[in-house]
Structure formats: structure tokens, C-alpha cells
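Record type: ASSEMBLY
Status: queued
Input:
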Amino acid sequence: MASTEHDNSLGLLEGLATTRAIRRYTDDPITDEDLSTILYSATRAPTGSNRQGFRFVVLRDGPVATRAKALLGEAFRAGWGTKRATDGYDAGTGTLDDSPKARTARAMQHFVDHFEATPVVVLACVEVRHGGIQDGASVYPAVQNLLLAARALGYGGVLTGWHRMVEDELRQLTGIPETFAIAGTIPLGRPQGHHGPVRRRPVRELVFDDRWDNSADWAVDPVGTRFTSAGPKRSTTEDA
Amino acid sequence: MASTEHDNSLGLLEGLATTRAIRRYTDDPITDEDLSTILYSATRAPTGSNRQGFRFVVLRDGPVATRAKALLGEAFRAGWGTKRATDGYDAGTGTLDDSPKARTARAMQHFVDHFEATPVVVLACVEVRHGGIQDGASVYPAVQNLLLAARALGYGGVLTGWHRMVEDELRQLTGIPETFAIAGTIPLGRPQGHHGPVRRRPVRELVFDDRWDNSADWAVDPVGTRFTSAGPKRSTTEDA
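Status: finished
Output:
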């Protein structure tokens, strides 16, 4: 059955190269066993001094989860509404039904309109130590492990930050203390679409040898790699 | 030969659970091809709005690399020296040659004393946008991909932050502009030790269901899982 299929033989390198952001989900739940494996895998990631200051609040269909998903749904719709306007999704090629921009806009609208139906939403938290980017070193590797483990089991998700608009209410609702940052909100479910190779800029634009801006001649994209073809706004919210 | 062995069949889930922090390296270089795969895999990770604000400066044996490794070596030795004193590595069980604390101290001392001989050191950078933890969401997933890809190819490394002590000099030397944060320094090489299951706290201490501090009954560590057994200081710098 589609609801339980997954490919245990997926290799590590292939998994890294083919885990897309997934924003449309079927109604299939995530089983307890799979959810356990996903969270276990997340917690195998490194943290600063192995302090393990990360915590994961898993919202499914409990009393808090239902209210938290509704709160987040409002925030996501507001966030996308603002982005849609400021990034010009309804201008230029966005007015053409078949343009990548219009398709992206439809996918994002669907994502936020159906947020409350997301099978699982994970709030990834981390103890605040420095208050800067380096606190992220103790939680975002775990988030990446979480997304990769979900992909290994036939699920998918996406790391988002739109909870910030309702962070105070979300903390009140879930009890997340002020000493922990909410580093990301990660909806998870069975993809309506599918995973596959992601698109990025050519690797030589992202990797330097010996010093900044010095081309890494040894860095090559594998044959057949497809690239992000336009500016940042166009590729913003595609499954990527 | 040991220098080229790796296991292409390593599964995604197994890779996530068995990628250790590796701090002791053989003299084997990392081949151009493997380095390309490692960096390519890093850049497959997600970034905020797929903006791809991450950049990787790869230090091998070029003119800048040699000086940067020397500068970083000083910083790492100073960093470890401070940590060794403040975290009491030479007190209590640290005075017993066979204690975990003493072994950790020896491993860390070896790591910093041999820093300049590390085959490859990667500086992971990211465009500064918010100046807070969320900037890390666009670079630490890539760092985790990098470490996982290295593991897939028979290498290993560790995400560190001791470059911060010499950040100004490091920027001057490498040309990293002020508009980019140096999010992490990642030494890489062929492990003298080996990868394997990592130790963490029981998953139920890290994962909550529905609300903070609410036990996730469905979250279980696989049979045979070994745990971090002591406070944060003891497990600080083991391969973990």
C-alpha cells in the first residue's frame, strides 16, 4: 500500500541529493513507529559539546496540537500573504497561469490553506546560550536529520520560520520556556508529490578553494544536474 | 586500500545514526572527486526561501590554507586550553589515566596539537540576514549534509566554533566579507578511529508530545541503544 511504502535501501548519498521540501501531504497519518524513528534520527545529530540542548515538541491531534496548528495556520497564511504581495507573485509572469511563478504561488497557497490538516507539525527548540547564529549549530543539524529520516521512510516536510509571528501565543499554548528558542516549525506528512533531485546554483558558485571568490576547479556538478534558473524570488517556494 | 575504501551501500537511516564527530585523522588526502561529492552534497541542503546564501571556503594546502590552518591551530589550542581548565579536565577522575575524562582530554589535546596537519578544513559561511539563530537555518543543514557525505565516502569531521577567537584575522586572510557570517569550521579527513552509533540521552528526554514536558510514549530508543551516562562536561569532547 502506498501508505506504508518506503525504500529501506535508499543510500546515504542519494538521500542527501534527493530530499526536497515537501508542502503538500496526503491524509495518511505518520505511524508511531515511523515517528519514533524520525525523532530518534533527529537526536543523533551533533550539538555543541554534545550538550544536547535540542528539544522537539511533536504536534499531532492532541488538544494543544489542534489549537497550535490553528494558530500556526493563521500565521502561515499571513506570512504567505505578505510574501505573495512583496515578492510580486501576482505581477509579471505571475499573471500567466502556466508560469513557474504562478505554479509556485498556487502550491504555496495550497500549503497555507491546508496547514491545519498537516498530519504532524514538529517545533524544533534549542536552549539559548549565545543568542546568535551559533545556537543554531545545536539544532539545525538535527532538523536536517529529521527531514532526511522522514524521506527515508516515505514522508516529507519542510523547515519554516513563520511561527515567529505568533511566537508568544505559541509559547503560552505549548509551554515552551523562554530559555529555549523555537528554531523552526516543520510540517511532516506523506507527499502528494514526490522527492527527487533538488535544484541549486552550480556548485562552483557556492564553493571556493583556498580563499573567498577563488574558483574550486575540482568542484563539479554530476552529469545531468539541473540548476536554479532564475533569481531568488522565482525559486523561493518551489519544492526545492 | 584503506585510503579509498568506502561503503556505497550505507543506508540513509543507518548513516544518520552512526555519524560520529571525528577528530583524529590519518595523513591520507581527500581526493578531488570525493571532495567534490562532499561539497555537492552539502549544497543540496535547504536554505531559507531556497536563497542559497551559503558559501564554503575549502582550505587544503594552498598558500592561504597553510596560514589559515596555523591561525586556527593557535585558536583551537587556546580554546581547548581554556576549556580544559574551566571544565575541570585535570581534576577529579581526570587525574586517573584510564578515566573517560582523561581519555577525552588526551583525544582533544591530540586534535588541537595536530590541527595544522588536518587534510581539509572547510569554513562554512552564510549571508547575514537577521543576525540571529534563524540565519543558521540556511547553513547548518548543509553542514550536516557535508558531514554525512564525508561519512558515506569513508571520511569524518566535526563542526567546531573556535574560529571565533581569530575571526578578524581569518577574514583578512581568506577574504570572507563582513556580510557573511562564518558559521562553522569543519576539519575533515580519514578517521584514525571509526564511525559507529552515537550516544545521546534517552529520546524521551528530548522529545515531547503535544506540549512541553509531556512524555512522548511512542518515542522509543531501538534495542541496544547506549546513552550518554554523565553530565554534559564528561561527554563534552568524546567522539560523539
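Annotation: Chain B has one domain: 2-200.
Annotation: Strands of chain B lie at 54-59, 120-127, 156-157, 180-189, 207-209.
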